[in-house]
């Protein structure tokens, strides 16, 4: 009986004096808004001819991995025609996810065949993302762009080579 009493006393004292020191690491990371935007300039543009609906010759150029966006939250990519001519030649574009895109595609809306306003107009939203471009592994979204323009854009002006006059801006709403 003394042994049973001693055993219960030992267990009672042992459990009441048992202290557990558990420490879990606490890491507090605060991300400030991050935004990076890159436009690549291809060495060579391949144009494909297409008959336009306005009886004007249309040219199409596809540029792979043309736009790269790194953003810690949602973002918008907007574009205008850099021609500055109100009733100038028609220019539209369509973005697509790039072949090398490995970023977050959830909540990304890609506009199709957006006619770009002239430089003095309001920019058209061509890419809109509700979420960060980071998917946990890769931080960037890459987009291909298909330009569709009247052949008037490709006529050289003076000594300058023809160019696609587009001005891009990116912002976090």
Please give the structural blueprint.
Blueprint: H1 2-16, E1 35-39, E2 47-51, E3 57-71, E4 75-81, E5 91-97, E6 108-110, E7 114-115, E8 124-129, E9 140-150, E10 166-171
Q: Could you say how many structural domains there are in total?
A: 1
What is Rg? 29 Å
Distance between the termini: 77 Å
SS class: mainly beta
What fraction, in percent, of the residue positions are helical?
Answer: under 10%
Q: Name the assembly state.
A: single chain
Question: How much beta, percentage-wise?
Answer: 35-45%
Main sheet attributes: strand count, strand direction, barrel closure: 6 strands, antiparallel
Order of helices and strands: HEEEEEEEEEE
* Total of DSSP H or I helical runs spanning 4+ residues: 1
- Describe the global form: rod-shaped
Can you give a write-up of this model?
With about 170 residues, the protein is mainly beta. The chain has one domain (about 30-170). Helices cover about 10% and strands about 40% of the residues. It has one helix at about 1-15, and strands at about 35-40, 45-50, 55-70, 75-80, 90-95, 110, 115, 125-130, 140-150, 165-170. It is rod-shaped.
Quick overview:
The chain is 9% helix and 39% strand. Strand 2 and strand 3 form a beta hairpin. By secondary structure, the protein is mostly beta strands.
């Amino acid at each position: 009986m003394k042994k049973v009493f001693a055993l219960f006393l030992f267990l009672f004292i042992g459990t009441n004096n048992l202290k557990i020191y558990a420490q879990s690491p606490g890491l507090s990371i605060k991300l400030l808004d991050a935004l990076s935007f890159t436009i690549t300039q291809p060495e060579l543009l391949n144009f494909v001819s297409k008959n336009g609906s306005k009886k004007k010759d249309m040219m199409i150029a596809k540029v792979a991995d043309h736009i790269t966006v790194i953003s810690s939250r949602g973002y918008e990519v907007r574009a205008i025609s850099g021609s500055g001519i109100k009733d100038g030649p028609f220019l539209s574009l369509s973005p697509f996810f790039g072949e090398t895109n490995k970023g977050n595609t959830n909540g990304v809306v890609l506009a199709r065949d957006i006619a770009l306003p002239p430089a003095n107009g309001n920019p058209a939203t061509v890419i809109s993302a509700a979420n960060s471009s980071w998917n946990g592994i890769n931080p960037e979204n890459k987009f291909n762009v298909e330009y569709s323009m009247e052949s008037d854009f490709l006529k050289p002006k003076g000594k300058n080579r023809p160019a696609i006059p587009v001005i891009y801006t990116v912002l976090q709403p």
